[in-house]
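question for whoever is on the cluster today: can someone run the full assembly for these? two chains, 863 residues total. i dont have access anymore since they changed the login thing
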Amino acid sequence: MVIEVPQTERVNDVDVFLSTQDGQIQRPKGPNCRHPVRQKCTNCLPVDPFDEEYLKEKDIKHMSFHAHVRKLLGSQGKGTTLKKPLENFRCSLKPNCDAHKPFPKGICTKCKPQVVTLNRQKFRHVDNIQIENQELVNQFLDYWRLSGHQRVGFLIGQYQPHLEVPLGIKATVAAIYEPPQHCREDGIEFLEDKNQKTIDNLLEMLGLQRVGWIFTDCWTANSAEGTVHYTRHKDSFFLSAEECITAAMLQNQHPNITEYSMDRHYGSKFVTVVASGDESMHVNFHGYQVSNQCAAMVEADILCPTLYTPELAYVRETPLSEEHYITDVQFSMKNEYGAEVMKNGRPLPVEYLLVDVPAGMPKEPHYTFHVGTSNKSKSAKFNVENRQAIGQLQGGANLIQYSSEFSTNQFLEQATNFHFLLYLVTNDQVQISDEWMKRLCDAVKAQDRGTAMEWAQECEDWHQLMALAHANGGSGNDDIPVIPNGDPFSGSSSGGSRGAVWSCGHCTFQNEAGRQDCSMCGLPAAD
Amino acid sequence: MFANFFQQQLRRTTRHFDLIVYGPVFLPNATQSKISEINYGGKILLPSSALNLLMQYNIPMPMLFKLTNMAVQRVTHCGVLEFSAPEGQAILPLWMMQQLGLDDGDTIRIESATLPKATFAKLKPMSLEFLNITNPKAVLEVELRKYACLTKNDRIPTSYAGQTLEFLVVDLKPANSVCIIECDVNLDFDPPEGYVEQPRQVTPAVTAKPPAPDASAFIGAGQKAGGSGGTGQNATSVFGGAGRRLDGKKKPSSSVSLSDGTGVSTSNAAPVANDLPAIPPVVVNEDYKPGRVSFLRYDYKRVDVLEKELREKEASKAGQPSNVFRGGNRTLRGAR
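^ ran it for u. tokens below:
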């Protein structure tokens, strides 16, 4: 039996593919070339993927990760020892240094981290973020539209080669998973996700992974026009220090597995997307990553945000414990006289830590998963997870309504919905076993109608789940207590003493028992 | 005897009869609940003989009456609650007697009337208490059921939680008196008597973002902007002395300007530039745990941009000629 390496420890397919490409940029025969078509001269020889002039010409601010690796490899010749040129950044003490006692008692230059000099990162791990379709983000933004509260979600998708940048990688987003969270009008907070393992397992079966996170920072300017304030611009900040640190934490949780590093991981491909107002005051999406230096500083827990100045971070001053070592951080900036000066990282502008990643939607929308409104004939949407706060519950009546939209041989369409699949594995009634889920995921991946139908007929757990839903959800929403008719008038007159009521023989108005005449038409009670 | 009197009257004038009016307290064996039922309603009590006569005339339902005080020619309309008044008398709610300028024992003319159904009504609450009702719609739906019809310029009382709320009927459609039984009414309100409209907090318009809070807002968080002018000092001098933390850690470091060279000018300049938002102090939040993000909800500008604006402002100020030594120059020797 072959045990498969989990996705999180495997080199991503896109990296495997790109490492086989040579990445040379072919150039056509130019006006200065005086030779036949099949020959090349210095004017038309292919250039390296990291060629600075070419990148400048194409307006690419950061070279791609693989181009960066080629550049490091290329300058060193083709020796065997130099195949792993990437070295991870370290801001914490190297543990288990055997030359002396552990840190508070002794330290040496080998285990002590270097003084960090912040540089803007020249390359980026992901060159583009592509959100597959509009409905996907609309459904995500609906939470904010309905409640006015901000929302955070994980971008679910995969990495693919990006052709517009030499050896580039793009992250394509197929769905947004909304984890348990505490959201406010002006903030968000991740809560512990008890389903994390289950979800990662499901994603692996679908051949997808978490490629990033997205949050809304929408501040309504005019609710009638649906505009939001333009808050993130060059005079304020693009990503606040808190967001940078959270992004760095998430990047550290999702390392980029690569063979080019001795540690077998380097940086991260995890992206950050902000949904906020743009110049025209409409909601727009901006993608970022934090630099590997920032991620290393956060890993060493030496970076803190500031209270009133979101664009400034601060290097921690008091160690958390005796063993906690805080290394010096400096950066160079131009002072008011235009001279380059070195500054201490207290405080430190987070723009030194940011790498921006363009985010957008393709001209031709692509649907890995059906999203509610994509199919116009279907009215029912399967509710998104963890939205109890705005009264959207999965399962029960929603499941029945959603399922009733599809006939038996449309089960493939029904199952091609990320939130639906997620419900199958995370619901607290009948969780469908891994084995069956794998079959369904394979069918969804291959869009195999026959297998999906077979699955729907054969899977006992699924039948049981539907039966349970019908049993307790058929009449209505089983989880929401039925609120009595909100009209206090009808509630007060007929509530409680329904038996002690007589109806007027003239106008049929329902009167209280004590009255001798009708309170509506004024006529006496007829016997 | 009274019945005869009635019949004579009714024969003489087709559809009206005169009765002596009394307030609800004059009702024989009246109870408190009965009295308040009459008082907070628009229905009167008539003698039982009136019912017999009305039946003979085959009056359209619901029974509505026009009340006229012949002495002062005041008119209002009402419904009928019961036919249980003593013969020759009508029991009227107090407000109606005031409305018509009647005293107990006066005579009133009662005519059967047919009123159009109401489509629109405008009421004016006579006290500010009305604004404190949480669900005015429900209260009115219940209370106005006790009225059969409304007449313009009536002051109608309703009871709510033991207190009396009065309304003035300002406007009615389609006529000046309308029937409000079984009809859909568009109800409108005038501002209550004695109500002064507060200047409403206008929600920020499209372009207007709330400006950044001034320096005191930042100082309030237990952290004083480094030597920030006179006002700041005064504000914090009440609680002088250094803060301490229970866990023995040092207090978060005091503010450090991004560019040390201009640090002095920054902190001093905060009170100088009144039209510019104060430069927020840099205060470290060392207890931050990743995973929690909050957003600003005011028009934020980054510190170095603010500092630059301040510098420019100061430069432009310095560029202006000082007017301390104004006036022309003279020589002592006089003109040559």
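summary bc i know u wont read the tokens: Chain A touches chain B through 62 residues (CB under 8 Å). The longest strand of chain A covers residues 152-162.
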